Amino acid sequence: MVYTKKNIRINILHIIGSLNTGGVQKLILQLSQSQCLKKYTHNVLCTILSVDNYRYAYEKYNITILSLPFKFAPISSIPFKLDKIIRYLFSKLYFFRLWYYLFISEFEVIHTHIHSQIISQILASVLSGKRMIWTIHGEYSMGRFTLWIIRILLSILPSTKFQIIADSISALHSTLPFTGNNFKPDNIIPTGINLKPYLQEYDQSLIREKYNIKDDTILIGSTGRIVWEKGYDQLLSLLENYDFGEKIFYILVAGDGSLRNKFIKRIEKNKLESHITFIGNIKNIPEFLSALDIYIQPSVTEGFPLSVLEAMATGLPIICSDAGGLKEMINNNAIGIKYKSEELNSLYQMLCKLLSMKPNKLLELGRNARKEVVKKYSIEIIAKQYYKIY
């Protein structure tokens, strides 16, 4: 039998941190089920031991879940100093552990979605005879020595052995500054989204009733991890320091993370309960988004966030910072409004502008946002770009 590109079944290993809730985890799941990539074998290798919120979804779609952690948890049964030395060596020997793991495996393509121990990942993949693809999903800070090694590897290895992709120009240039003088459009593959759940009709009253939001209240919402990168502390500072006059609005933030409890205590301390609530993880994101009037993303640093694509697909006007890929994603005044990241006064002015817009203008922004996603960012469009690389 003569094998062609169409009938070769490629075995792909995706390296991620964990299966906790996140945009990368959802993207891999959606890519694996796209028409052009579901014929390949998809596996995930987790490098962090944690609670796996996506385990059931991955197992449902026959994605094999593997584990090779960078570090292991402390062992109380041995002396602390000895335990510390063992854990240190365990981490430093990650290259050898990963190389051997890949050498005896049957994976053809190693697709990493994390930057931790990236040199070890690249060398282990190449020296084990595998092809390595690194997708940069955010703005990361790399050491000079690491950047120097990556630059050398890019210059000596062909793209058939090692290739770097980023979900936005900002992510690429922030993480690898040397690419600024040698930018190639083929290095950028944005995040994609399964549009179907967001184009359906939902009962918009359910969310408002659940959280006691009155009909005349402008409901602003956001979804994401409650961590410093997402900038949700700025929303609290906004409510603490600025007066919005007679404008009636309420903010619901869906998601969980290390800062959620701290923010809840801050809300109680400063009596902000009548303006904002961090509601935790939700099961039905499309239903939640359908109840909103405006979507807000106050990120400090970003890649090309899936959460904003989901809001755009829902048909919501967007207000966001200009962090990372958001400046490329949001066409100002066409599908939303951008403000200068971490500038509270700029956020206040832009939010007031959006709150004062006439309903038909808000609807127009939302319609334009949906058209943009359908045209450029459906998961099938993005999957085809990865198909060419695989």
Keywords:
alpha/beta; Rossmann fold; six-stranded parallel β-sheet
- Overall number of strands: 12
* Overall body shape: globular
Based on CA atoms alone, the radius of gyration comes out at: 22 Å
CATH topology of the largest domain: Rossmann fold
The chain-level mean pLDDT equals 91
CATH architecture of the largest domain: 3-Layer(aba) Sandwich
For the sheet with most strands, the description reads:
6 strands, parallel
Low-confidence stretches: 1-5
> In percent, how much strand structure appears in the residues?
15-25%
Main structural class: alpha/beta
Question: What is the structure about, briefly put?
Answer:
With 390 residues, this protein is of the alpha/beta class. It folds into two domains: 11-189, 3-Layer(aba) Sandwich (Rossmann fold), CATH 3.40.50; 196-376, Rossmann fold (3-Layer(aba) Sandwich), CATH 3.40.50.2000.
Task: Please render the helix and strand layout as text.
Layout: E1 11-16, H1 23-32, E2 41-46, H2 55-60, E3 64-67, H3 80-92, H4 94-103, E4 109-112, H5 118-127, E5 131-136, H6 144-156, E6 162-166, H7 169-175, H8 205-210, E7 218-223, H9 233-241, E8 249-254, H10 260-269, E9 276-280, H11 285-290, E10 294-297, H12 306-314, E11 318-321, H13 326-329, E12 336-339, H14 344-355, H15 359-376, H16 379-389
Parallel strand pairs: 1-2, 1-4, 2-3, 4-5, 5-6, 7-8, 7-10, 8-9, 10-11, 11-12
Helix pairs in contact: 4-5, 12-15
